[in-house]
Structures are given as structure tokens and as C-alpha cells.
Design a protein that fits this description.
Elements: H1 26-42, E1 46-48, E2 58-61, E3 68-79, E4 82-88, E5 91-100, E6 103-109, E7 115-121, H2 122-135, H3 140-143
Antiparallel strand pairs: 1-2, 2-3, 3-6, 4-5, 6-7
Bound molecules: nickel (II) ion.
């Protein structure tokens, strides 16, 4: 495993669309392992492949209940609204309020290529939505509410 460099700020790769993974090969497995180590090293609660310079639809989360890996994640249903503070490992030193669904249902593939469905609420739902946005070139600063925020100890995704 290796820690990869997290792309930040104006890096154009953060604005590109990531591609669907067609073949879960050894490169994808290594990518996942490296992303886990990189997220942990950066003390993040989520990470998307484009943040380490790879335009593939691969994300991970760890909101304190263990790492979850998602390949080709898709949101199937959303419910409710939740306003919370977000930060991003790719947008250092910034944070802001973002409205996300309170609850989501998603499907994705695991590293064995098996499709799974899950529901997520609260912080985990927020993390998954933030990471899927990264796959579509969207940063939280694009959608945050235009209010000052000077929170400390903000979760970074
Ligand atoms: Ni982020």
C-alpha cells in the first residue's frame, strides 16, 4: 500500500467526469488499498479516486464505523434534507454548509465485483453524496450555502 498525493484547488482533474469501471482488476484493488491508506493518513471521512488523480468511479468512506468501498456507485433513492458543515481534502482550509439528503439508497460493486445495495443516513449519506459529486467534477464549494462559516474540526471528505 502507498499514500498517494491528494490533488487540490485548481487541479483540472477535480473538474472532470470519472469513468465507469468495467473490469475490477489488480490495478483497481491496489487503487482501493492506496485510497484507504491515503484517507487514513489525511484523517478524512471519505475519498474519491479523482482526488488521487484517477478518473474512475471508485469511492471510499469511513465515518467512524469502518471503511466501505464502492465501485460505480449510484444513488437510487433519496429522502429528506440535512444541512451540515463540510470540508474537503481537496479544498484545504475551507468549510461551508451543504444541504444533502438525510437518507439515501445506493447500489455499487464491491472489490469482488459483487453488486450490493445499502441505505445510509446522516453523516454516511453526506459522505457518499460528497464523494459521488467528486466523480462528476463537483466540489462542495459549488453547492454550499453562501454563509460565513468559521467552524473548527470540520470533517473532510
Ligand atoms: Ni472532497
Amino acid at each position: 500500500m502507498a499514500i498517494r498525493v491528494i490533488r487540490t484547488d485548481e487541479d483540472p482533474i477535480l473538474r472532470k467526469q470519472s469513468r465507469v469501471v468495467k473490469d475490477i482488476n489488480q490495478r483497481i484493488v491496489i487503487l482501493l488499498d492506496d485510497m484507504i491508506e491515503t484517507m487514513s493518513d489525511a484523517d478524512g471521512v471519505g475519498l474519491a479516486a479523482p482526488q488521487v488523480g484517477v478518473l474512475k468511479r471508485v469511492i471510499i468512506t469511513d465515518v467512524g464505523e469502518g471503511v466501505i468501498e464502492y465501485i460505480n456507485p449510484e444513488i437510487l433513492e433519496t429522502e429528506g434534507e440535512n444541512c451540515g458543515i463540510e470540508g474537503c481534502l481537496s479544498v484545504p482550509e475551507k468549510s461551508g454548509k451543504v444541504i444533502r439528503p438525510e437518507k439515501i439508497k445506493i447500489k455499487a460493486l464491491n472489490r469482488e465485483g459483487v453488486e450490493f445495495e445499502m441505505t445510509a443516513e446522516g453523516l454516511l449519506a453526506r459522505a457518499i453524496c460528497h464523494e459521488i459529486d467528486h466523480l462528476n467534477g463537483i466540489l462542495f464549494t459549488d453547492i454550499m450555502l453562501p454563509e460565513e462559516d468559521d467552524s473548527e474540526d470540520v470533517n473532510e471528505y
